[in-house]
Amino acid sequence: MSELLDIRGLTKAYPGVQANSAISFSLKRGEIHALLGENGAGKSTLVKTIYGLVKPDLGQMFIDGTQFEPANPQAARAAGVAMVFQHFSLFDALTVAENITLGMANPPPRRDLAQRIRDVANAYGLPLDPERRVGTLSVGERQRVEIVRCLLQSPRILIMDEPTSVLTPQEVATLFQTLRQLRAEGVGILYISHKLEEIRTLCDTATILRNGRKVAECTPAEQTAHQLAEMMIGIELERPLPRLFTPGETLLTLRDLSIATEDPFGTDLREVNLQLHAGEVLGIAGVAGNGQDELMLAISGETKATRSQIVFETTQIGHLAPAERRLRGLLTAPEERLGHAAAGEMSLADNAFLTGRKRQRLDWKGFIKPISTANFARAIVKRFDVRTPGVEASARSLSGGNLQKFVIGREILQRPKVLVVNQPTWGVDAHAAATIRTALRDLAASGTGIIVISQDLDELREISDTISVIAAGRLSTPARNGSLTNEEIGLMMGGPKEEAAHAHA
Amino acid sequence: MENIKNLNSQMIVTGAALAALAIFGLMNGISPVLLFASIIAAAQPLMFAAIGEMVVEKSGVLNLGVEGMMIIGAVAGFATAVSTTSPLLGVVAAALAGAALAMIFGILTQVLLANQVATGLALTLFGLGLAALVGQPFSGIKPPDFPEVDLIFLSDAPIIGPLFFGHDLMVYFGLILVTLTWAFLTFTRTGLTLRAVGEDHDAAHALGYNVIAIRLAAIAFGGAMAGMGGAYLSLIRVPQWSEGMTAGAGWIALAIVVFGTWRPWRVMLGAYLFGGVTILQLNMQAASITPLWLIVLGLFLAAVQVTVNSLRNPGPVDRWMVGLWAVTVAMGSIAQTYPISIPTQYLSMAPYLATILVLVVMSADKLRTNLNAPAALGRVFQRSN
Lengths: 505, 385
What we know:
The structure holds two protein chains of two kinds.
Chain A: E1 5-14, E2 17-27, E3 32-36, H1 43-50, E4 58-63, E5 66-67, H2 73-78, E6 81-84, H3 96-102, H4 110-123, H5 139-151, E7 157-161, H6 169-184, E8 188-193, H7 196-202, E9 205-210, E10 213-218, H8 225-233, E11 250-259, E12 269-277, E13 281-285, H9 292-300, E14 310-312, E15 315-316, H10 322-328, E16 330-333, H11 348-356, E17 363-364, E18 367-368, H12 370-383, H13 400-412, E19 418-422, H14 430-445, E20 449-453, H15 457-463, E21 466-471, E22 474-475, E23 479-480, H16 486-504
Parallel strand pairs in A: 3-8, 3-9, 6-7, 7-8, 13-20, 13-21, 16-19, 19-20
Antiparallel strand pairs in A: 1-2, 1-4, 4-5, 9-10, 11-12, 11-14, 14-15, 17-18, 21-22, 21-23
Helix pairs in contact in A: 3-5, 11-12, 11-13, 12-13, 13-14
Chain B: H1 2-27, H2 32-58, H3 66-84, H4 87-111, H5 116-135, H6 152-156, H7 160-165, H8 169-187, H9 189-199, H10 201-206, H11 211-237, H12 249-259, H13 264-287, H14 292-312, H15 319-337, H16 344-348, H17 350-364, H18 366-372
Helix pairs in contact in B: 1-2, 1-13, 1-14, 2-8, 2-11, 2-12, 2-13, 3-4, 3-5, 3-11, 3-12, 4-5, 4-11, 8-9, 12-13, 12-17, 13-17, 14-15
């Protein structure tokens, strides 16, 4: 009997990049098969090919021994392939039921659909209210919508693209249970992740990709995480050394900071209190959409607070604009690389000028000093190993990881007194992530206070001195890193709001 | 719950405005029935164009060429009606001409990825110029009469007859179109897909929907509707052809879409409100009434709004409320005692000033507007493969 899915010699080239070259592997019934690799290794292109979004240049695919050439996602779905995207393909303004209808080939009539959503959701332990607007759901619940949408079509092959990167530990446990149940029912699951421990506990087989090629196939449970990482990257990783932390003077204080958001799907900040000391790395954990962005905007000055709510060193700065805060040494690097941290169409040098103008004295009486600016940009490129043809290249032309190194490096090189970063290594490969984390630790060692907002708990464990959790716009009292277990942090991430919602459902 | 509340306040304010107009009409010896009939006629072209544009914007495309498509519809409808002596054929031709012009915009912005704002503005300029050229031989001609709906008994009934049954075919056709558009967007799968495309084109593409085809269809529909709106002007409302006869109606239609927060019934309501303002200023010009009454009307509507709000919310009465009513009454008595007249040109500005005012008021309430605004509005969709 032939395999469920058989891939033979898939090849796809984009201008300048060989995304996939001659990749072959097979997926059995009732198997969870990991696709492992760094960013740009070709995982996404591979699964998009299977889902009919990308047409391969060469190679063939077979389902149950019959040739499979999906012209579009509808054809792939008809053949039993379902996919849960990393960036959810959900519509905030529509309801859960409407979102699910959109992803189905032949949706049942409205009334039946609501009932079927409830049935499937309960069968797999994924409670969902079909009438709620997706914009009001937490990230974990949104993923549930995606999964339920797939399950309603009784797929035979389920593709999961980095499903756990935004979930709390408890939500991850629920997801794994669902996946194991599906495996028992004979569904073949392709599981993309770069979280190695997860793959070791969950997956039966792993195919490892590097630079578009398959470099190994193994049974992950028989390998250590370190061995897997080396297969994936091909080199040794640097790790920041643990370090004893003694709190210095207080640099940044937030006092009962409450701000109502203007975003219809945003989160209000509620009485946020915080003290950041010199040399401290404070990690703020939490599931996306719990007030991280709003907190970031309040500290950077993009939304104003009242004067006394934010104190920098000894000055009250709640009313000051971003530029004035930057001049004093309070620097921030927001989450969105393109469009918020950097202007895509502008060159790296211009982008360096945008935040470095005052602190690096890159202007003179309103004129840009081109040589100093270019030198500053070159210093960032050199120090953080940003791969670019030159500082005149546009920010958009850089890959995500490289641009991230650039925007974080730009702030670090300005020698901030306080630096706030949001998701500093999101979507960045392991090597670049290690560089950024080490640079943040080194900066803290020189006396800077750093706040790292991140959804990656392992990352916070690795670099923070103290950890605090943000849930529903409230910030918990910081605790020493190590004094809390992952389970405790996970429960705090759920927050009181979440529990009430579940009790209600 | 929230929706019902919002609708109520908007409906009450519009209702109050219409009631004020009726009283105004009576006071000046104009029959309120006639007044309403003329408001409907003034609102109809706006309604066609605005409903069309609403569907286009719901699909995530901002077409600023409404004015251009309207005037092309006006001239095409007029020319066809005159040469074939069939006004109905004229309307069909207007819809086709509007859609054809819209497809130029569609291909430029969707296939060739041109900037939507710039292309839309260019479309308006192009449409105005082309219409002037095509319309040259037709100025001063009288078009064939548009067939009236004659429901013998109903049309002859007092008050109700002329109010509800005495209109031309296009008025009823417009109402049916609004209903159909509403049902299409709310209940059909294609309507849902269209909204999804306007919400997030990348996600819709990832689900396998043809974003470009859906948007082109919406753009064509918007063009056809604008074209019909134009034909209503040249064949029924005015009825004759003159250069630049749309006089900014397309821009008002764009504002009405925002005023109606992208919901069909509210867009219709908005069209009637703007139609009312237009008729009001015309009648004021005729009756040479002091413009102070305009201020009184504005104050009156603000007072109604504040009162509705404060009655709905529990707690102490809004202190603005009493003040506003007092100022309204005071202003009213001043307007009554000192009839000053001003040049009519200032009165002609009223609809446009109202447009600006509405846009300012609506964008002040960011939260509510954002909730129903299509999130991908005006963003260029670049297909990846």
